[in-house]
Structure formats: structure tokens, C-alpha cells
Write a structure and sequence with these properties.
Blueprint: H1 5-23, H2 28-45, H3 58-70, H4 75-88, H5 94-99, H6 124-135, H7 139-149, H8 155-159, E1 166-170, E2 186-192, E3 205-208, H9 211-219, H10 230-243, H11 252-266, H12 268-275, H13 279-285, H14 299-302
Antiparallel strand pairs: 1-2, 2-3
Helix pairs in contact: 1-2, 2-3, 2-4, 7-10, 7-11, 11-12
Length: 303
């Protein structure tokens, strides 16, 4: 039996929940996005949800792609819709559909992949505007901006922060030092696993918090005194678009600036530590290796 598109979309959340219990994937957000994307492709391609899944032909999908492009969507955005449609018919789904007695015909999906452009470092004038804007932020807006600009956090991870993510440890004494000379000071750290990569790299971020940042954080009452919401980031997005950054996630540029500057000053290894991403991802999307920040050198002088 070949099911209708509507039948598949109705069953998909159920099998996704079962698969999540086994492997941890797909996440609830992914399921929501895949359903939304599949419906969007059908709507743009003129395919009824009551039609059999075989109606999602290459021609129908090409029609949807053309419609998206006429709407002014970028190739990257269009590709995301195709990926979301593909997610509903991913390889892990097949056994579940077969258990239901369904036959899912193979799809002839587009093979292109539109990659986001490489990161280009903002101009010094733009960075100066960001610095001046940041200096004016207070309370909740300061905290949200700080977690992105100083710690390269994604907005979703900021919203998920708990008290346990802030760790205090005594400073380790250097060899030969004794506590009688000077009591070891307390150091504060941000400790969390980025949600986006917890099921892939699973790399945990453990980054020291500057004393001035910690003092301001405690002055505001910590997390209990700071009510960061989605609306907070919407407001930051508007501010940063006024500064000259474009796109729906303008505040994300703060994360990129953070990683790029750590990359410039301390190298790729430290950029990996603060971001939780691998070096390949950082060098393409978060740092600009094409703009070295060293003076002219002769390698022979280093020999």
C-alpha cells in the first residue's frame, strides 16, 4: 500500500518519538521543522496532502523550488526545505513505514547543496559600532549579549542556562606556592554542552568568566534576576540590524565575532574550546583565516 502524504505526516511524530528513545534523535524541534518543510514543499509544488507520496515527483519538487526562488528565498533557504522533506522519509523511517504495511517509493531529490558563504570578518568600523552598542546594554539585554559576545553561546543555549552551568573552583596554586602566602582565589567558569552538537561531537564547553563579568552578573541577581526570553533576542536582532548586520538572526553575529577573535588571538584549539564546534566548522563559518593578524615574517628566521 502506498500511503498518502497526510498519512505519513500524521505518523511521523509517533515514529520519531520511538526512534528518539533508542538513539536520542531526531529532536522535537527537528520533527516540527521537517513537518513544516514537507508541507511547504507540497504547497509550493501544488501537491495535495491527500495525494499518494508518489506524487512527490522530481517535477513537483522542481516546481516547488522554482516557486521558492520566485518568492525571493535564497538557495540556502530553499535547500533547507528540501532537507526537511527528506527528513520525513529518512532511512531510519523506512522500517517503521514497512511495519505499517506501507511502500514508500524512492525519491528523486535534487542533489545540489547550497552552503552558507564563508565567514568574512567585519570591518574595524563595524566592530567599533558593536563595541559602543554593547557598552550601552544593561540588565537582561546585557546578559543576553554578553553570553553571545563573550562566550559564543547560541541563543537557545542561553535560554536553557541553569545555576548548575556556573561553576566556582579554587585557583590551583603554582608549583612551590603555598596557601600561607596568599589564600587561593575563587575562579568562576561557564560549563555547558551546546545543544546543537550534544549528539554529534558532544564537546563540553568549560570557559573562565572574567571577574568584571561575574561581578555584574551577581549584581543583577544571577539567573534569578535576569529574565531572558525569545523577545530579548528579537530586540537584540533589531538593534544589530540597525548597526548594519543583515538576516533574521543578526544577534548570531556576536557569536561569530567572539569565536573569530579567540581564533585570532589564541588559535584554533581555543576557538574549538569556546564554541564546542570542530575546527572545520569554525574555519568556514566562524573565523576568517584569509585575514591573518600577524606581521610580515621570514620562516627562515624561525629555523
Amino acid at each position: 500500500m502506498v500511503p498518502t502524504i497526510a498519512q505519513v505526516l500524521k505518523l511521523y511524530p509517533t515514529i520519531a518519538a520511538a526512534e528518539r528513545m533508542k538513539t536520542g534523535r531526531p529532536g522535537k524541534g527537528t520533527v516540527t521543522n521537517c513537518l513544516r518543510g514537507a508541507r511547504s514543499v507540497c504547497r509550493a509544488g501544488g501537491v495535495s496532502l491527500d495525494a499518494p507520496v508518489s506524487a512527490l515527483s522530481r517535477k513537483a519538487i522542481d516546481t516547488a523550488l522554482a516557486a521558492f526562488m520566485r518568492q525571493g528565498l535564497s538557495r540556502l533557504s530553499v535547500w533547507s526545505y528540501v532537507c526537511q522533506l527528506r527528513g520525513v522519509f529518512a532511512r531510519w523511517c523506512r522500517p517503521y513505514y514497512q511495519d505499517t504495511g506501507w511502500e514508500i517509493p524512492p525519491f528523486d531529490l535534487p542533489t545540489f547543496r547550497a552552503k552558507a558563504p564563508r565567514y568574512a570578518r567585519p570591518s574595524q568600523e563595524m566592530l567599533a559600532r558593536v563595541k559602543a552598542w554593547y557598552a550601552q546594554q544593561t540588565h537582561t539585554h546585557w546578559f543576553a549579549a554578553t553570553m553571545m559576545l563573550e562566550f559564543a553561546m547560541r541563543n537557545g543555549d542561553v535560554l536553557r542556562l541553569k545555576d548548575d552551568n556556573f561553576v566556582t573552583r579554587r585557583e590551583v596554586l603554582s608549583c612551590g606556592e603555598t596557601s600561607s602566602v596568599q589564600p587561593p582565589r575563587l575562579r568562576h567558569y561557564l560549563s555547558y554542552t551546546p545543544h546543537k552538537t550534544e549528539l554529534s561531537s558532544g564537546r563540553r564547553v568549560f570557559w573562565p568568566i572574567h571577574d568584571a563579568i561575574w561581578a555584574k552578573f551577581t549584581e543583577y541577581g544571577g539567573l534569578r534576576g535576569l529574565d531572558v526570553t525569545d523577545e530579548t533576542f528579537d530586540e537584540l536582532n533589531r538593534d544589530l540590524r540597525h548597526l548594519g548586520f543583515h538576516g533574521t538572526k543578526a544577534s548570531y553575529e556576536l557569536r561569530k565575532i567572539c569565536i573569530d577573535h579567540v581564533y585570532q588571538k589564541y588559535g584554533a584549539e581555543m576557538a574549538v574550546s569556546i564554541s564546542g564546534d570542530d575546527i572545520k566548522t569554525i574555519s568556514r563559518y566562524y573565523a576568517d583565516p584569509a585575514q591573518p593578524n600577524i606581521g610580515a615574517v621570514r620562516i627562515v628566521d624561525l629555523l
